[in-house]
Amino acid sequence: MSHPSKENIGGVTRIKDIAEKAGVSTGTVDRVIHNRGKVSPQVRDRVLQVISELNYEPNVLARALVSRRNYRLAALIPDPGYDEYWEAPSKGVDEAQEQLRPYGVEVRKHLFDQNDVESFKAAAESLSDVGYNGIVVAPLFYRESLSYMRRWSQEGIPFNLFNTHIPDYKPLAYIGQDSYQSGLLAGKLMHFGSKGGGTCLIAHVDEDVPNSSHLIKKEQGFMDYFQEKGLSDFKTISIDLKGYGDEISFHKQLDVTFEKYPDILGFFVTNSRAYAIAAYLQKRALKNILLVGYDLLQKNIAYLNEGLIHFLINQNPKGQGFYGVQMMADHLLFNKQVEPIRYLPLDIITKENVQYYI
């Protein structure tokens, strides 16, 4: 029967235990842990090795409780009432809030309509006047986001970005997908699923593309895949489709698209609305049209299972909201050095494996 080691009685490692095993003073261990004062590289490496061996973690909860400071964070995110996709990031924010509540962290959501730039500006103004300790934001509107990021930077308010990476004013961190890489992946999936060349349409459904840097990067990645592979028999064309909520008008746009490009191989939908094109393909009884999109919305999953959507790329939206808040807390409460970019995995979802993701 094994017994707790002398250095780790009861499963709790103390600074004293580390000091004894490393052959240094507790003061030296403290300087290494908090990265302050002068410590020789050899001693620092030895202390860090012992810390790793003993699985030492500072009692951050006790430290936070002793400080008795409360932190207020703002989450500036699209309203899920307008688009089901944003339910997942919102739930991620909620989960992070629950985990951080004992540390004195309060997260308040400021919601906006993702299709209305004035709604975004109003929500951003409302939080800018409150005096939050940190902000987590999905900056869907590039130009408008820049002015608020500039203001927050000047006021010394740290902010994390998720969903869309805008590095201009040095956010504390970006959490989300590598948009360009996801476009490359979509290109590979389109190529993999094809039986020959044809026209591949990059469909932006109800988006303000010039003001959405993540969509531009997705489009570029998709196009670059075919260009870099020298696949000259594949033609990539970007199209904007508007008003998917009006089925008659939306389907007329697609009718015109098929008349204009009779050799359509497939669609790459750059947002979560692949289901809107799948509904059209089903109604027109069009077969052998590849459809690649994003996100595990119920409508997307239904069309995936019916074989009308062939691939979905999961961007882990819940994780984006969760880590956006958690990493801000790591910075504010625990003075941890936060990685400036945290790319989340791009999972390829098919009808054969979708049940493991829902």
From TrEMBL:
Protein name: Transcriptional regulator
Xref: Pfam families: LacI, Peripla_BP_4
Domain HTH lacI-type: 13-67
Annotated Gene3D superfamilies: 3.40.50.2300, lambda repressor-like DNA-binding domains
InterPro entries in the cross-refs: HTH_LacI, Lambda_DNA-bd_dom_sf, Peripla_BP_I, SBP_2_dom
Keyword Signal: no
Classification lineage: Bacteria, Pseudomonadati, Bacteroidota, Bacteroidia, Marinilabiliales
Species this chain originates from: Geofilum rubicundum JCM 15548
A GO term for molecular function: transcription cis-regulatory region binding
Keyword flag DNA-binding: yes
Domain of life: Bacteria
Keywords from the UniProt entry: DNA-binding, Transcription, Transcription regulation
